[in-house]
Amino acid sequence: MEAIATYNLLRVRVGVAPHTLDTQTQQQVIDAVLLERRRELAFEGDRWPDLVRTGRAVSVLGIPAFRTLFPIPQNETDVASSITQNSGY
After folding, report:
1. Residue 58 CA neighbour count, 13 Å, CB half
2. What is the pTM of this model?
3. CA-to-CA distance for 10 and 4, rounded, in angstroms?
């Protein structure tokens, strides 16, 4: 319920009609919030972390799963022998 209220604050602020909870399934609400977040933060660099955090980077971007993790720099693995490189790199 709080998610819808917060989500609707954004919609009303930009002049879009608020959503009503009775016509939305939980997944539709989640999808709507993610879409609104994508629009609201379009040029702020939050898209990649959102896709990785929600587990949608592979399907949305069509990338191999190992690409959701960055490689660990070689100088870090040189000084800390217990660190293992992320798979795929």
Report:
1. 7
2. 0.65
3. 10
User: What is the rounded CA–CA span in Å between residue 12 and residue 17?
Assistant: 6
Whether the CB-CB separation of 36 and 10 falls below 8 Å is answered with yes
- Decide if 58 contacts 68 (C-beta within 8 A): yes
Paired tokens of 28: 């539709």
Please give the Cα distance from 68 to 55 (Å, whole number): 9
Burial class (CB in 10 A: 0-12, 13-18, 19+), 35: exposed
Residue 48 lies in a domain: yes
Kindly state whether residue 71 falls inside one of the protein's structural domains. Answer: yes
The domain containing residue 26 runs over which residues?
2-79
Mean pLDDT value of segment 51-67: 94
Kindly state the average pLDDT of the residues 18-25. 71
Render 5-25 in DSSP notation, one character per residue.
HHHHHHHHHTT-PPP-GGG--
